[in-house]
Amino acid sequence: MMNFKVEPKIFECLPTLYIGVVAARNVHNEAVYPQIERLLTQSVSAARRRFANIPVKTAPEIVPYRKAFRKLGLNPNRFPCSVEAMFSRISKGKDLPHINPLVDLNNSLSLKYVLPMGTHDISSSAEDIEMRYAVEGDTFIPFGSTQSEAVDAGEVVYAVGHEVRTRRWTWRQSEQGKIAQNTKCIFFPIDGFTDVNKTEVDCAQQELAQILREMFCCPVVTGFIDKDHLICPLE
Prior knowledge:
The chain contains six helices and ten strands, in the order βαβααααββββββαββ.
């Protein structure tokens, strides 16, 4: 059985870390879902209105992630979390591209709830996926590349074995495990905090699971990770 795990040491820096978990199998990502295209368009429009008059990095929904990055030794100005990067792009008048249904769905809900949400293809490995500190031997291949790059020792990553799927916590995902049209099994982590946005994480999880069941007609597993629950089954 495949699990999602978080290294206990991470909670020494981020004691209120709370991660909603959604996993789905037998997904048909090659189909066309006009409803998801509309969801993304609506979320982008709402995001543009939300940050029309304030800098993204000062928004109360974004500040807790910037503080958490600093606690982990990361500069959020150089390495913003994924949702801050999306809002910054939109606030500059740029749109988000439609990639494929699963990625578009993830991005639409990430924007709607102002939460970093990841997408990982878990079809290719039976090993657990972990949020942990990087170790010697870890490798990362950036999007669009075939060349691996060095991963800083002690950097917080999402990884399967020594394959780093996301560098610097929620900053950038890898070519390994990216979602394609032929993706059948997927894992969505929804990163938040028990004392800041637990309600939003739970709502995003529930909406995501409902859409996957109703639109994709696939089996879905949900769960969560916090300081008292370090392992969550993905099947």
